[in-house]
Design a protein that fits this description.
It is a single chain. The chain is 57% helix and 15% strand. By secondary structure, the protein is of the alpha+beta class. The chain has a two-stranded antiparallel sheet. Helix 2 packs across helix 3, helix 2 (30-44) crosses helix 4 and helix 3 (68-81) crosses helix 4 (85-100). The N and C termini lie far apart (30 Å).
């Protein structure tokens, strides 16, 4: 399945720095790390998401390429929590840091 859906994502710069570092240490790309986390936290073992206020933080913007299955998980979570997909990805990013850091 190809990654033919592109989303522009904005996350706090410090979160981006931590994700990039973690992905490098794990030997994967940041986008792949987030894809894994989406599937882990939204389908395999659904997790309750929290949404910290990040509106005033300096943001880093990147393109998140994904496939239809992953995008559908994001859309369902967006509807469930009544939050934009960007907020869902921010929340998933925090969970990914917490979860995958323990493997280092």
């Amino acid at each position: 399945m190809s990654n033919d859906i592109s989303l522009t994502v904005r996350i706090p710069k410090d979160l981006n720095t931590e994700l990039t570092k973690l992905a490098k240490e794990l030997g994967v790309t940041k986008v792949n790390l987030l894809r894994f986390a989406i599937h882990l936290f939204l389908s395999e073992k659904p997790t309750e998401l929290t949404f910290p206020d990040t509106s005033s933080e300096d943001r880093f913007r990147f393109v998140f390429n994904t496939n239809q299955v992953t995008y559908n998980l994001l859309v369902k979570a967006s509807e469930k929590y009544d939050q934009p997909i960007n907020s869902i990805l921010n929340s998933i990013s925090v969970l990914a840091l917490e979860h995958y850091s323990k493997y280092l």
